[in-house]
Design goal:
With 326 residues, this protein is an alpha/beta fold. The protein contains 13 helices and 9 strands. The protein is 50% helix and 20% strand. Helix 7 links the parallel strand 5 and strand 6. Bound molecules: alpha-D-mannopyranuronic acid.
Length: 326
Amino acid sequence: FNFSLKTMAVSAALLGSVTAVNAETVLRGASMFDEDHAFTKTMREFERLVAENYDGDVSFDLRLNGELGVESDYVTYLNQGVAVDYTILAPSNMAVFSDSIPLMDMPFLFRDLDHWNAVLSSDAFAPLEADLREAAGIVIVGYHGGGVRNLVSAEPITSMEELADHRMRVMGAPIQAQTFDAVGAAPAAIAYNEVYNAIQTGVIAGFENEAASIQNLKFYEVAPHISLTQHTITVRPIVFSAKVFDALDADLQEAIKTAGAEAGAFGRALESGADGEILKEMEAAGQVVIHKFEGREQMLELVGPVQDAYAAQLGATELLENVRGM
Ligand code: MAV
């Protein structure tokens, strides 16, 4: 009798320790890039801040270098609550679940960095966030971004004439294709991890991207010409799977929201601050040739009506006017 009591005490103690191990929450993140890219750095900062703001046990398992695929894959995982719990991604890659979310990163939405900053510091995008949670099961906890997207191509594209019928890859949201269609190019939605090969084999002649990613994934090897259309200042939400987020304890949810806001601010300063430097680095290393683009004004005029029509179709005219007016 005595013996079995002891045994019970031992197993209770064991059980206790097992429970304690299980009580640690392990969250898995995904990045298409290595440790040097601004997205990864922002996620590292996010992880650090969550741990700092939370009393319980939480750890992070961030998979790099596209080990878990590309952003369009992450979106499906986040929606289902499997494989990826958090990441940073382009709103346009979430178009399959939400028609309205790509409005956040449509080309020519922001006049300049000040405008972009003002909009991201406001709650102008709150209705889009609500729609994303509802339609995609994805929660936005902060905003990274700040890269400037330009044309990246095998041959220089320096004018509206050269842009005409230019076969270029765009992200999967219809508004992206509509925009580049309106300026006369021939856009095609192609998965990000197929872009390098598609340019190399001549399936497309180029794409558009920001400096940090051109450098990190060495796109300059196949597309060494950058034309300064400066058509997009990126908005890249730090996102969580709603299924995962909702199952976390309230304190951890709070820590994640606080960390998301702070890591986003850190990341926006980082990527927007480094953007011009990275272009110069690539130029100095002989990796890219940078060209002026004559015709940005014309692009703006052609794209305005496309934006208006998209917003009208979403019932988001007021939202767009509000953003433009900031
Ligand atoms: C850049 O790597 C990032 O902006 C990333 O968020 C996008 O998904 C990617 O470009 C792209 O063009 O798909």
